[in-house]
Amino acid sequence: MTSSEKYEELEEELKALYEDVNTKILHRIPKLSGEKKKLAIREVEKQIEDANIMIEDMELEAGHAPGAYRNPMTSRVRSYKRDFEKLRKDLGKPSGGPRVTFGREELFDSNPESDQKFRVNQATESLNRTSESIARSTRVAVETEQIGGEIIEDLGDQRESLIRTRDRLKETHQDLGRSRRILNSMAIRVATNKLLLLMIIVVELAILGAVVYLKFFKK
């Protein structure tokens, strides 16, 4: 028993994968030859890689398990590592024919024509991958150039907008200056009018006082 449902699911998948790989190495691959054998070996290599990924996931699950479960789970992970390492080595052992090495892309065959065809196919695939990589790089470069052009255009528009805003601010400042001068002029006129009005009132009061004095007090 374990404390992780994911660990148990991975373990079940790993057991089934082990049985499948073991059967292919012991019974199926030795009976094949040529391209079929190469394809079968590649398939087994891929399965072993998948198994290693599953083992790493199980190891992570074991590391997070409580102490009572951790040691047994870790021990089983190590056991699975040894089992698949043995399968990997068995895949590289000779089996009544040319030696096949795990992880190599070139698998020797007794037929020179087939081997040459395999190398040509490998070279063609490599050339195709290179062409695709160049095409992707070209697309990225074109897209980058387009984005750069759009950015430059946007910056130009923003510059023009800032210039227009600056000009409007200058005009507003000038208008404020004119308004300030007009207000100052109006204030001076108002003060002058008040002073004249005050003088007129004083003169009228003086005249009124003189009239009253002459009429009532001087006889």
Automatic annotation (TrEMBL):
The chain crosses the membrane at residues 195-214. The keyword Protein transport applies. Keywords: Coiled coil, Membrane, Protein transport, Transmembrane, Transmembrane helix, Transport. One of its GO terms (biological process) is retrograde transport, endosome to Golgi. GO terms for cellular component: cytosol; endoplasmic reticulum membrane; ER to Golgi transport vesicle membrane; Golgi apparatus; late endosome membrane; SNARE complex. Residues 88-114 are annotated as: Disordered. InterPro entries: SNARE, T_SNARE_dom, v-SNARE_N_sf, Vesicle_trsprt_v-SNARE_N. Its main location: membrane. The keyword Signal does not apply. One of its GO terms (molecular function) is SNARE binding. Residues 119-186 form the T-SNARE coiled-coil homology domain. Pfam families: V-SNARE, V-SNARE_C. Residues 4-61 form a coiled coil. SUPFAM superfamilies: SNARE fusion complex (SSF58038), t-snare proteins (SSF47661). It is a single-pass type IV membrane protein. It is found in: Membrane. Belongs to the VTI1 family. This is t-SNARE coiled-coil homology domain-containing protein. It comes from Exaiptasia diaphana (Tropical sea anemone).
